[in-house]
Each structure stands twice: as C-alpha cells, then as structure tokens.
Amino acid sequence: MTKQKTKFVILGLLTIEPMSGYDIKKMIGETIGHFWSESNGQLYPALIQLVNDRLIVLEEKQKKGKKESHLYAITDLGREALETWLGEDIEGKNIQRDEELLKLFFGKNASPSTTVQLLQKREKRVKEKLDQFLLIQKELATLTTSPHHLYWSLSLKNGIYRAQAELRWCQESIQAIKKG
Amino acid sequence: MTKQKTKFVILGLLTIEPMSGYDIKKMIGETIGHFWSESNGQLYPALIQLVNDRLIVLEEKQKKGKKESHLYAITDLGREALETWLGEDIEGKNIQRDEELLKLFFGKNASPSTTVQLLQKREKRVKEKLDQFLLIQKELATLTTSPHHLYWSLSLKNGIYRAQAELRWCQESIQAIKKG
DNA sequence: CTCAACATGTAACTCGTTACATGATTGG
DNA sequence: CCAATCATGTAACGAGTTACATGTTGAG
C-alpha cells in the first residue's frame, strides 16, 4: 500500500535497458514527461532502496577520473515486483488539481479580460504541447519494431487527444466570455 | 509565493454566500470537485488563519445546545486578495501524474489482458463521470440568471470535453491492444 | 436505539520539491 | 576560460492526507 510510485517508474524504465540515475531522470522527461515527473530528492534515495531490496543491481560503477556513473539493471525479483504492481488496481480517487480552472470558476470576481488572458495563456501552452506531441508521434512512427511501440504510442495519443480537447475548449471559452 | 491555494478556494466560495467550514467542504465536492479537493486538515487551519489576516470574519457562532456552527463571510480585504490572486500568472509546470498511463506505458511487461482490464476500468469510471457532468449541466441550465453561470458552465464543460476525449481514447486503445 | 449526517478540529505522517553541495567533462 | 551538461546525492521545507477525537441532531 505504498503510495510512492518512484520505485516502479525506475523498475519500468530499467526494463528498457540498464541506466544510471541521471539517465532515468532524463528518460522520464523524454518519454513519460507529459504525465509524470520525478525529482532528484525522490529518485536517488529510491535507487539505493531498490538495491537494498534486491530489485535492481549496480552493474558497473565507472570512475573516469573522479566522475562517477552508476549503471543499474533490473533483477528477476524486480521484474516480479513490477508485474505485480502492473496487475494491481489503482486505489483511491486522486483529483487532479487545476489552478486555472479554479480561477475560471471564480471568474465573476475578476474582469472578463483577466479571465480571457488566463485562457489565452492556457491555449498557447496547450498548442505548444500539442505540437511537441505530434513531433514525437512522427519519431515514434519510425520505431514500429520495438515491443514497447504500441504502449508508447497509446500513452502519447492520450496526451494528444487531451490537448486537442483542451484546445477546442479554450477557443470556445474565450469566445463565450468575449460575447457574454 | 505560497503554493497553498486553500485560502483562495475559501475566499472564492465565500463570494457566493457566507458559509461554515463544513458547508465549504461540501460545496467543493458539489462544484469544483472534478478538478479540486480539500481535506479537513487543510481547511480548518486555513479558516483560522484567514480570520487572523482579516480576509474573512466569523459572522455568527451558533450554539444550539453544544453544536457549533461557524458562519464565515468574506471581507473587503478578502475580496482584494482574491482579485489579486485571480490576476496573477500561474507559476511553474505542475505535471499531473497519472498512474494508469504509467502502467500502460510499461504495458510490455504485463499481459495484454491485464492492460485491457486497466483501460476498461478507466473507461467505466470516465463514463460514469461524464454522465454525472451531463446531469449537472442540465441543472445548471436552469440557473442562467446567476452572474456565476457563465464561468461555472465553462469549467464544467472542460470536464465534459476531457471526459469525452478520454472515453474515445479508452475505446480506441482497448481495440488497438486487442488487435495488436 | 442506532445510524447517518452534521460540525469542528488536531497530530502524525507521507509525499514531493527546492536548493544546495560537490565535482568532471566537453565545446565554443 | 567559461558555460553547459554530465553526475550523484542530501537537508530542509512545505503541501496534503489520514485517522482520530469530540459531540449534536434528526430520521427510522
């Protein structure tokens, strides 16, 4: 019943290939960044714990000069733990807080132009995100051979659909406030 | 640069009408529940602080027998603080974590049926939510006179659009995994 | 009588970020 | 030489939930 998912993120990414903590951090940004993030303060302690629990092992510890690079790999025990977690039901409603929607909801207390600006900024942000997603989608299309491909493209598509819905909503909402 | 938004939620809701802490909690669930939540551990201390800061006042403290009911109202200072916050830019990217998408992304490590089940549960949940939203939308349609109406209906519509996009994605993804 | 809803509050806890410390390597 | 990126880690803080304590009121 641990709520912290950091360990599973690490285990999951290490099924792709052995990596260092630094690599994991970067890879999070490049792959699951649109619905997940981890900070160093979570990541590095989790790596140490996973080694203690024998779910991952430190394969190589390179020292070129004094620069360290720790290469971690998932163990069979780790794969087991990951699979167990993948089969578990998600628990509890965790409401996604959205400060902008909160401000919009209280829009009566601000000038319409303030709220319009709020929405225009959201629109711009979402647009940029959508463009990024579409670019990544193109790159992904060249990697159809990977066994990960289907799952990666589906999770990306989720971001795309959301962004499109959000964009449409922003545009309609801006119009509605300008009229009303 | 406070990150805690609880105070603004309280201020915002008190612009509708004076309320008790209990009322605020309930109202959160009934209005902004699809993108916001507050726990008692945040709410009650925040109310006390807001009184200290003169942003709200305790209008009535009813004691029928020993049952207490505190009725709070927003002050002019409170309205000012709210308006200031409404005009401020949102800061920092807070990535919305989504455990189900995380599991999907790591789908290669599970059986397709496990992942399909995951998505079917999501689909069911989203469907129920969408139905709720559509019901609320009908109720809202009867309150067109309120100055809040436009903003409330737009924030609700955001939930509806998202849910629809999510639903479509769930259905397509389930099909894609079943085929692939 | 009992259960659910009303009503307020607090202590302990976990989660997660921020900001820092430390140092190496590489490209302009 | 300097900035960016590589690379690992920790301490302190703040946000937020959970679980509890306490008691009332009204419906069945």
For the structure shown, list the relevant keywords.
homodimer; 180 residues; Arc Repressor Mutant, subunit A; 2 domains; two-stranded antiparallel sheet; 7 helices; elongated; DNA-binding
Give an account of the 3D structure.
The structure is a homodimer of 180-residue chains. By secondary structure, chain A is mainly alpha-helical. The first copy, chain A, has two domains: 6-87, Orthogonal Bundle (Arc Repressor Mutant, subunit A), CATH 1.10.10; 99-179. The first copy, chain A, is 62% helix and 9% strand. Chain A has helices at residues 6-14, 21-31, 40-52, 76-87, 99-105, 112-140, 149-179, and strands spanning 56-64, 67-74. In chain A, strands 1-2 form a two-stranded antiparallel sheet. In chain A, helix 6 runs antiparallel to helix 7 (149-179). The radius of gyration of chain A is 21 Å and the shape is elongated. The model of chain A has no long low-confidence stretch (mean pLDDT 94). The interface between A and B is large, with 62 and 61 residues. The structure holds a DNA duplex (28 and 28 nucleotides).
CATH class of the largest domain in chain A: Mainly Alpha
Number of strands of chain A: 2
Which topology of the largest domain in chain A does CATH recognise?
Arc Repressor Mutant, subunit A
Structural class of chain A: mainly alpha
Q: Please describe the biggest sheet of chain A, giving its number of strands, its sense, and whether it closes into a barrel.
A: 2 strands, antiparallel
Give the fraction of residues assigned to helices of chain A.
Answer: 55-70%
Mean pLDDT of chain A: 94
What is the N-to-C succession of helices and strands of chain A? HHHEEHHHH
Low-confidence stretches of chain A: none
What would you call the shape of chain A? elongated
CATH superfamily of the largest domain in chain A: Winged helix-like DNA-binding domain superfamily/Winged helix DNA-binding domain
Oligomeric state as shown: homodimer
